[in-house]
Amino acid sequence: MPLLEVENLKTSFHTREGVVRAVNDVSFSVDKGETLGIVGESGSGKSVTCYSLMGLIPQPPGRIEGGRALFDGTDLLHCTPRQLRSIRGRRIAMIFQDPMTSLNPYLRVEDQLIEPLLIHDRIDRNLAKEMAVQALKDVGIQDAGNRVRGYPHEFSGGMRQRVMIAMAMITKPDLLIADEPTTALDVTVQAQILELIKREQQENGTAVILISHDLGVVAGFCDRVLVMYAGKVAEMAATKPLFAHPQHPYNRALQRSRPTGDMKGNELYTIPGLPPDLSKEIVGCPFAPRCEFVADACRKDQVRLETVGDDHYSSCLRVHRREIDL
Amino acid sequence: MVRYAVHRLLVAIPTLVVIVTIAFFLIRIAPGGPFDLERPLHPKVMEHLERIYQLDRPLHEQYLSYLRNLLAGDLGPSFYFRDFTVSELILSGLPISVQVGASALLLALGLGGLLGVAAALRQNTRSDYAVMTVATLGVTVPNFVVAPVLTLIIGLQLQLLPVGGWGKPGNYVLPIIALCLPQIAAIARLTRASMIEVLSSNFVRTARAKGLRESVTITRHAIRAAILPVVSYMGPAVANIITGSVVVEQIFSIPGIGRYFVQGSLNRDYTLVMGVTVFYGALIILCNLIADLLYGVLDPKVRYD
Ligand SMILES: Nc1ncnc2c1ncn2[C@@H]1O[C@H](COP(=O)(O)OP(=O)(O)O)[C@@H](O)[C@H]1O
Ligand SMILES: [Mg+2]
Description:
The complex is a heterodimer of chains A (326) and B (305).
Chain A: E1 4-15, E2 18-30, E3 35-39, H1 46-54, E4 62-71, E5 74-75, H2 81-87, E6 92-95, H3 99-102, H4 109-121, H5 125-138, H6 144-147, H7 157-169, E7 175-179, H8 187-204, E8 207-212, H9 215-221, E9 224-229, E10 232-238, H10 239-244, H11 249-256, E11 306-309, E12 312-314, H12 317-320
Parallel strand pairs in A: 3-8, 3-9, 6-7, 7-8
Antiparallel strand pairs in A: 1-2, 1-4, 4-5, 9-10, 10-12, 11-12
Chain B: H1 2-29, H2 43-52, H3 59-71, H4 86-121, H5 126-140, H6 143-157, H7 170-199, H8 202-209, H9 214-226, H10 228-251, H11 257-266, H12 270-298
Helix pairs in contact in B: 1-12, 4-5, 4-7, 4-10, 4-12, 5-7, 6-7, 6-10, 7-9, 7-10, 8-9, 10-11, 10-12, 11-12
Adenosine-5'-diphosphate (ADP) binds at residues 13, 15, 20, 22, 40, 42-48, 58, 61-62, 278 of chain A.
């Protein structure tokens, strides 16, 4: 049984401009210790998917319209606040895109680090403080004994993300959700942070959902990858086949628009057009207006995620019909 | 922090000099003088009085001598209450004004903060709209309207509380309400806005993601950040309460500093008006400094050096 099983998740935002269907019928699962990557352009619903699981969608304007998210037998979308509290922060932890603002600027790092221990494990305060120092050491912060008494603004962006990781991992969660953890950081720091996540994951046997808009990051890091487009799953597969044998034109286009080493002088491919406005009803495949393989049926027929290979799923109609070979 | 405080106090001196200068010449421009009575004094008596109080000397000499005395801490004798010095008058009114003003300030902070937080937590519900409508009214309606209306309704119509006189606890209620209502309103609006912003901030999201109860998230993480703008508002709030007290003390006949200020102005009691002005100026500067220091205590990013 998978650790987390999300089925038909639908989350929308009821705004003045209309109903924004940010996540529209998304299903996936994560096994124990596994690493799942979620990729897609900005605005494709990656964050909203994960916030929905964590109960972090502001309601209103947000609303979980449907679906299930079974985590070790508990439906995260329909359990009591008490049940959810006992899971989030303890068994599922999360780190965010912007480390500069994700820590409380008015509390000592120490007080923030020990909070999960105090509320979930009811650990003695002094012991918790020792664990906090150790946690900082583990994420590679020098002079942790003193630094732990500092405030977030005394740390650089990369260091703050390390603190966030330490805080997330301090309860040894079963699942870590990392929402673009390196996007806001310098390129040199990015690799270090990813390496750190990998190490923490291996030490604790934690499953990781890594959200990124950077295919390169996901390629080197994840066991399986889910490609999102306009609030829907476009394609999902193990990392290797996903890159070697794309089964959705969007995935293929994403890969073509990725800078690689041997590109000198060649202009980078960009996908024409823009993602659709999610507050409008989308008929047919949401990618159809930008797709080079588009056929009449794509603009009319409802898309569905179907098996196109061994544990390989695609929502492309023409791939289903074997009309195109990518 | 001590060095910072001393520095700020030193910087305040020129500010005070400017206040003194403007006040000194403004009140001299006002028509009439301290010894103009309904039945004019005999010219000889007038001359004598003016000599005693040095009003016969050129204006700039008077100004310089006032500054000199001020530096020595001497606010001079009152022209109207002839047996008292200005310092004595201010000190006699001070306890009463402080009692009323401080109560109003504390009440405004407590109640305004509470209402603001409550409105933010119930954002866009009826109770939010109700609080904010009343608060908007409260901000726009000035003390000199609130005070008579309170007197009229609670004092005269309902006969619940005394409308004048001084000494009994009941006497405090209406003036304090009249003074703090606009401040409650202002602080409630301020707190609501900043609380709403903080509640959608990333670090509050982190706190929720940790599995904290919403109540703990709010008390431990959100409120502390949300009150910072309110702390900054303390200086202006004190200034507003002082301004309000001038009106309110007059309306409720409270023997405080504000009343001396009004009487001093009407009587052209130059030294009394000057003294109270200097005192108010110094008080506002001091309160601003305290607010800034408090801000520094609450916000670790602020460093004084
Ligand atoms: N609080 C909100 N109110 C309205 N719309 C929102 C809100 N949060 C997210 N959305 C919308 O949901 C869609 C998906 O957003 P998100 O999941 O953040 O994208 P990303 O894939 O970049 O993480 C976007 O179109 C965004 O505008
Ligand atoms: Mg995002």
